[in-house]
């Protein structure tokens, strides 16, 4: 796994703890309130109050730090030093261990957390033994606390590992999605812009070669080069339009596409949207917009149409795009520039959809359906 994925996992892990921290605040407050009720001793209660203040001032921040940082250690050491006098004045103060042990497993890795929770759980036993000579009962309770703390720690560690694995999986999916999008865009550029520019270069070279012996032939080469350059400029605009900023809805982009097509070609373009419009994934919007662009590009180049209709229809499961013209019709398999239709089919298929091209003597209809 790459470093950026690992860092993303760590960041998501910390964010998850930040989101759950209010619940740990509630847990700590409940344990603290119960401990104060059982302590029955003013000095012990005051020390527990200082411990609570230490948690608010520094502990919450320490729990959000990396497990390799020094902040969790400082917080837990000071809390442990406050625990010693608290349990010396009142054995009931030991109930705060339910909170401290959990915090140790949140802030530290499992091995270090077990050591810290063992020390804290056996602290009341040691204090009472030195003060009163009591040992067995306190030792039994302390060992039970160690076992319960270890179980709690294993649960917390498992949740952390699951969260980290989920974050890394999401980061990997995002990376692969970005890679697939880059490959798709590279294919678009290669199939259209790169090939077109290569044609322009060859036409200019042919014009240069014919300039001295056949000026009319050279002029035709230059006119064809200029037309090819204009077509490639339109293709580049289409690619850039497909990379529309977040917040531009598909229906708005289709209307803009229709207006621009009519202005550039003089062909009447009607854009209609049917059904209940809803927000689509960005990838789906790009597929539909590129399909509309490619369909209109074929109308521009081959159809000799006077009118074109673009319809976007939403149903319960799919989104349908229909581009229809009243031109001459064409055979997709024999039309020059068919790489555009092939690229359209490839994009739509990758999105889980279908493409149908229906040429007739009265025009051509392109039908695209993709899952909503």
UniProtKB/TrEMBL annotation:
Alphabetized Pfam families for the sequence: HATPase_c, HisKA_3
UniProt keyword list: Kinase, Membrane, Transferase, Transmembrane, Transmembrane helix, Two-component regulatory system
One Gene Ontology MF term: protein dimerization activity
Domain Histidine kinase: start-end pairs: 188-372
GO CC annotation: membrane
TM spans (from-to): 46-63, 75-101, 139-160
Matches recorded under InterPro entries: HATPase_C_sf (IPR036890), HATPase_dom (IPR003594), His_kinase_dom (IPR005467), Sensor_HK_TwoCompSys (IPR050482), Sig_transdc_His_kin_sub3_dim/P (IPR011712), Sig_transdc_His_kinase_ChrS (IPR017205)
Presence of the UniProt keyword Transmembrane helix in the record: yes
Keyword Ligase included in the entry's annotation: no
Protein name as annotated: Two-component sensor histidine kinase
Organism: Rhizocola hellebori
């Amino acid at each position: 796994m790459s470093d950026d994925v690992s860092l993303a996992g760590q960041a998501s892990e910390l964010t998850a703890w930040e989101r759950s921290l209010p619940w740990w605040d509630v847990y700590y407050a409940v344990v603290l309130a119960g401990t104060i009720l059982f302590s029955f001793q003013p000095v012990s209660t005051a020390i527990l109050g200082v411990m609570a203040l230490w948690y608010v001032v520094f502990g919450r921040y320490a729990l959000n730090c990396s497990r390799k940082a020094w902040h969790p250690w400082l917080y837990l050491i000071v809390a442990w030093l406050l625990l010693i006098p608290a349990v010396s004045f009142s054995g009931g103060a030991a109930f705060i261990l339910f909170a401290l042990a959990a915090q140790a497993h949140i802030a530290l890795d499992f091995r270090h957390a077990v050591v810290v929770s063992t020390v804290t759980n056996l602290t009341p036993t040691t204090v009472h033994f030195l003060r009163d000579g009591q040992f067995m009962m306190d030792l039994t309770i302390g060992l039970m606390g160690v076992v319960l703390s270890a179980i709690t720690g294993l649960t917390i560690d498992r949740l952390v590992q699951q969260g980290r694995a989920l974050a890394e999986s999401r980061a990997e999916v995002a990376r692969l999605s970005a890679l697939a999008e880059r490959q798709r865009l590279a294919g678009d550029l290669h199939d259209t812009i790169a090939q077109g520019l290569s044609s322009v270069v060859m036409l200019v070279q042919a014009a240069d070669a014919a300039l001295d012996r056949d000026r009319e032939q050279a002029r035709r080469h230059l006119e064809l080069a200029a037309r090819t350059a204009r077509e490639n400029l339109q293709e580049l605009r289409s690619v850039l339009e497909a990379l529309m900023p977040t917040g531009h809805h598909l229906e708005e982009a289709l209307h803009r596409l229709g207006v621009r097509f009519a202005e550039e070609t003089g062909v009447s373009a009607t854009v209609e949207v049917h059904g209940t419009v809803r927000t689509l994934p960005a990838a789906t919007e790009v597929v539909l917009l590129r399909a509309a662009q490619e369909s209109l590009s074929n109308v521009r180049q081959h159809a000799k149409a006077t009118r074109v209709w673009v319809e976007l229809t939403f149903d319960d499961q799919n989104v349908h795009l229909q581009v229809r013209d009243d031109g001459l019709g064409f055979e997709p398999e024999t039309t020059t520039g068919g790489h555009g239709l092939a690229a359209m089919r490839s994009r739509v298929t990758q999105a889980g959809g279908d493409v149908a091209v229906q040429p007739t003597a009265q025009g051509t209809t392109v039908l695209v359906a993709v899952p909503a």
